[in-house]
């Protein structure tokens, strides 16, 4: 039987779980800003569809960021919260506002793939530790991101 501490996780387990969640929050923040950038700067024949899609996505991601931060607080830790920290930790990279709509879509599809991979990695670690609440969140994020990936992939074909 585990030595139960706050929420059933000892400080080493909580540290490892929070590290995974901070990696996610950093990547989601860079992704969020890319979506806003693209929402504001998309042009061309796909303007209306992509402008709306990017807005729907960044609103959903904003909620996910908040949920991840709140999970970190549940463990008694503080989430990374500065732009410098996000950029240092994130594997998703910023882009400028000179991309055309096809390039923007390709970038977002790559971000989706990165986020799915990071969520799966975090889920494996979190499930191993028995963190059911965070596991549930991550499964929902994976499902939502897979659907968004499918929809954007279908749109750009």
Measure the end-to-end span: 53 Å
What's the β-strand tally? 0
Quick one: CATH superfamily? Answer: Ferritin, core subunit, four-helix bundle
Shape: elongated
Number of domains: 1
Strand pairing plus helix content: what structural class?
A: mainly alpha
Q: Indicate the mean pLDDT.
A: 93
For the record, the CATH architecture stands as Up-down Bundle
And the CATH topology?
Ferritin
Tally of individual helices: 5
| Helix content percent band | over 70%
Percent of residues in beta strands: under 5%
Low-pLDDT windows of residues = 1-6
Radius of gyration: 17 Å
Largest sheet: none
Helix and strand run: HHHHH
Question: Which CATH class is shown?
Answer: Mainly Alpha
What does it look like?
This protein is mainly alpha-helical. It has a single domain (11-156), classed as Up-down Bundle (Ferritin). Helix content is 76%, strand content 0%. The chain has five helices and no strands. It has helices spanning 11-41, 47-74, 83-89, 101-129, 132-156. Helix 1 runs antiparallel to helix 2 and helix 2 (47-74) packs antiparallel against helix 5 (132-156). Mean pLDDT is 93; it is low at 1-6.
């Amino acid at each position: 039987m585990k030595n139960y501490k706050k929420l059933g996780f000892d400080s080493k387990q909580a540290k490892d779980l929070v590290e995974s969640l901070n990696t996610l929050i950093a990547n989601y923040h860079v992704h969020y800003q890319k979506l806003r950038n693209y929402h504001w700067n998309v042009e061309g024949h796909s303007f209306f569809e992509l402008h709306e899609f990017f807005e729907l996505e960044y609103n959903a991601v904003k909620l996910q960021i908040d949920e991840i931060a709140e999970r970190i607080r549940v463990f008694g830790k503080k989430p990374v919260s500065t732009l410098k920290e996000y950029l240092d930790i994130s594997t998703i990279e910023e882009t400028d506002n000179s991309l055309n709509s096809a390039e923007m879509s390709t970038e977002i599809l790559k971000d989706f793939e990165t986020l799915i991979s990071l969520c799966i990695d975090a889920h494996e670690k979190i499930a191993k530790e028995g963190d059911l609440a965070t596991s549930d969140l991550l499964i929902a994020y994976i499902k939502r991101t897979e659907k968004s990936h499918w929809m954007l992939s279908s749109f750009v074909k």
